[in-house]
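Instructor's aside before we start: the two examples that follow are unrelated to each other. I chose them only because their records fit on one page, so don't look for a connection. First example below.
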Amino acid sequence: MKFNKWTLGLAAVGVVSLASAAKADEKLSVVQTALSSTTISGYVDTSINWNIGTGTGTAFYGYGGVAKADGFNLNVVELSISKPLDESEWASGYKVDLWMGPDAVTLGTQTASGDLAIKQAYVALRTPVGNGIDWKIGVYDTIIGYESSSSPNNPNFTRSYGYSIEPTTHTGLLGTYRVCEEVSFSAGIANTFGPVINARAHPPGGPKAESYKTYMASVALTAPSDWGWAAGSTLYAGFINGFNAAPAGLTALNTPANQGSYYAGATVATPVTGLKFGVAFDYLDSYVSSSPGAVGVANSDVWAAGIYASYQATEKLSLHARGELATRLDGVLGLDNSQLWAATATVQYDLWQNVISRLEIRWDHGDEATYFSGSAGAATQRNSVLVAANIVYKF
């Protein structure tokens, strides 16, 4: 083993031994090897929101609301540290996504309020069964949905109602198997339907047995490269069913609930270069059972449908549109046997390097009553109109 001159000099005067120096160099080499395959990335997400008109209502989609109306916002800072799986049969790695800022509170993975949250933290493993099964154990993003919790990955700045009724994260075990380039499956088991890390469906005095868990599965189909202009189009479907200790939006009874979330979506390429369309359908079924502290039993059903269009006009300029319909019974999303419509248009122009800059206009409309919050927080409006500028730096 070779030593540098400084180490040899210390050994010569008896400060260190060559044996201990060799062990130290070996440990340092292991650390350097691990760090060389580790990547650090993330983003800083900011926005400027203007709800047009005095007293105009504020819609209640995910990460929106009165707190962000009519002002400047830091939404979230994400710091991601990861070692992706390599191509070896027994590959291993990890991923940690940390959120800091107001959206970290909304994410809800922590058991106490605070603006620092773990979004993902899992160990990644591969077992050489067939083409290889990739495993995640720990905290991972939900497996369903057209949109992501990370805003820069979405075509629009604001989230859809479909996203708003989906689960966000789970603590458990997830396996993914790719049959071929065109077909892949995922299946997993988690503690609960809800996002709180290490939550249980059987808290002290809780309604479920120790063995009760949340189950999930999905399938993804991708059009092969020889399909011409349709190549790369995707079809995706999945479900998640389990117990949520504190389901958000159940205004009738904020008590533990069995919940099932079902999703189907597709992204379709077109003969026009840069133009693609998408569709998404979400259905959430909730059953609030009697339990300690509960005052009754309630059923809740809500579904949301969305259509998407995106056009990459130039290298820097892209245009995005989304139309939505959401309907439900019994209080989820503030609705009561009624419907919400929403239309969103987004212009993105990447003027600065590593920066996403978007201008968005969104209109939400309630069919039959007042659903949107005014300045005092009460649901006094049938319409909500938002103009927002979103600036994100990705590193």
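Example two begins here.
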Amino acid sequence: MKNLTPGPLNKDPTSGLSFRLIHAESTTIRRCLVLLHGVGSNELTVADLAQGVSDDTLVVLVQGPLILGPQQFAWFQVSFTANGPRINPEQAERSRQALIQLLSVLQKQFDLTPKQTVVAGFSQGGIMSSSVALTAPESVAGFGLLSGRILPEIAPFIASNDRLSHLRAFVGHGEHDTTLPVEWAHRSHAWLNELNVSHVFKLYPIGHSISAQMHSEFLDWVQELV
């Protein structure tokens, strides 16, 4: 079984983002799984998502740049209103650009290609995963949107259908989610259909969380994708 002990916190000078590595145990790295946490959390909270990955997978746990409190980080500030979530778009855009830079740095460092790279996350981490993949599809093979949504604010930046043609996605969401209601998952599903992005769409009888079944099916998807 893969050793899931995360390494020390590193800071990439290019993107400004900090991250931890869970190294592949195989001498040959076949894929890179970049995992992003939700708002008010930190990179260690998504380490469990790597439980069950194959030994030839490099796992990268990235810390959001916005400090909310002790060991509490985010990718952008968000408030939940009667009209839905309201975000700080400037912060979201800076995080999107930083993540694209970090992916390039990691690929060069470990001699990996975008076709070997998957970005995924929970809640706001999933939001950022979709933002990166849909606007810079040349950076990854696919993305995982776990209990998240696709930001309407990225619409002007979404790549053309030709550039998106290779992209694959996994959309998993709880039917009883009260933080980001399941309607957001249906919107993501419909939007990806409009963009002709091939994707798996799964709903689970849970709230705003990741169940064992979602976790297992997501990892199966990653394994088959790369």
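Residues 115 and 141 are 5 Å apart (CA to CA).
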